[in-house]
Amino acid sequence: MTDPNTPSPFPASFLWGGATAANQIEGAHDKGGKGVSIQDVLPGGIFGPRTEGPTPENLKLEGIDFYHRYAEDIALFAEMGFSVFRFSIAWSRIFPNGDDELPNEEGLAFYDRVLDELEKHGIEPLVTISHYETPLALARKYNGWASRELIGFYERYVRVLFDRYGHRVKYWLTFNEINSVLHVPFMSGGIATPKEELSQQELFQAVHHELVASALATKIAREKAPDAKVGCMVIAMPLYPLTPHPSDALAVMKADHANLMFGDVHVRGAYPGYALRHLRENGIELDITDEDRELLTHTVDFVSFSYYMSICETADPELRKAGEGNILGGVQNPTLEASEWGWQIDPTGLRIVLNQFWDRWQKPLFIVENGLGARDELIEVDGRPTVEDDYRIAYLNDHLVQVGEAIADGVDVLGYTTWGCIDLVSASTAQLSKRYGFIYVDRDDDGSGTLARHRKKSFGWYADVIRSQGAGLVRGDGTP
């Protein structure tokens, strides 16, 4: 237990909780009038094969059955002391084909029940409007966000959400990891054109359509739910020069721009000069209307992000080839260790990126994903199934210490939601064996298991962190 007299760097208003996505937890892919989403045809994860329809072996089709077990799961979140829970609404539950004229009432009613349960336990909802699950029909019929028509379909969807839930939800995110469309255009943007055939013109036009739609969602929120707070959500990945050579520092700057551009547009309301230069020098001429420019001026209230790793960059092509980096490219950092899935672990990078974003944008920040995927072993302790996940406790402790340091630096941090607070199906690998949660779900990669929930050791640890407002976190020197 922590010492109640230990001061905490975290403000009393700090929101503690966990994060999930509909396509990774809900299951019930064919229940309640739900349509098919792009996730239902990605059985191999984001880098896996694409099929022509739902497949029985795809764990995502069943998830962890949150659709039927949401009350049980939310009660466990409340037991840990969550003050916020991030979840997404499945677009194809509300508009099964994406371009339907009328919404699906069964889908809307399901999220009413989820919100009822959260309100019962005093947990603030943090809702992601679109989290990697564009309705498949929009991908096939319109080529996803490559088509301007998706702005109108998204607008219809957003208006329905704010009409229905605007008075119940304070915090909203427009798109999950919107900058990921540059790397995984089908999963992130529903773009059916194979990545190797996708032109830069088409890709950046899709980026523009998403940015306009995101700003439109913010405008709609101002009209329908003036007390709501709308944020963008990006992948945060600090970049370090592999060597002190100025060319490596320049390579870092250029790579950083590719990510920062999305936040710059959301916060500043227009494309930055370096982005315009990139478009100009690559012969990309975007279709940008006057209405688009006006919409982009509707800027976000806060910036949220996922943080899992940092990478290095270098201008040396041979070093790049030899030091293949993490999930989004770059070069491995020789000073860091990595997770079982090769994601390099860098707690200090979280403090760095918090300061970078705060200095750049002066907007409140929200860490809405951070966690460690690992292979957990279920054992019995005192007659109860559990997991002795000290490795996860150490990972989260070290990252939260750095969040506290950033707050002491003067950064305005709204809250922290760990990724996969309950075990879920991995987006990157479509595995359940890549576990993130404080709660173990009895389901294996082959689909076997009872789906029973079991508290891991980290469950009690996180509950203690929340109760103490982070006062008991252990610094690198061993002191709280």
Automatic annotation (TrEMBL):
Keyword hit for Hydrolase: yes
Catalytic residues of the enzyme: 369
Family annotation (PROSITE patterns): GLYCOSYL_HYDROL_F1_1, GLYCOSYL_HYDROL_F1_2
UniProt-listed GO biological process terms: carbohydrate catabolic process
GO cellular component, one term: cytosol
Domain of life: Bacteria
Sample GO molecular function, one term: beta-glucosidase activity
Keywords attached to this entry: Glycosidase, Hydrolase
InterPro entries, per database record: GH, GH_1_N_CS, Glyco_hydro_1, Glyco_hydro_1_AS
Family: Belongs to the glycosyl hydrolase 1 family.
Protein's name in the database: Glycoside hydrolase family 1 protein
Organism: Streptomyces paludis
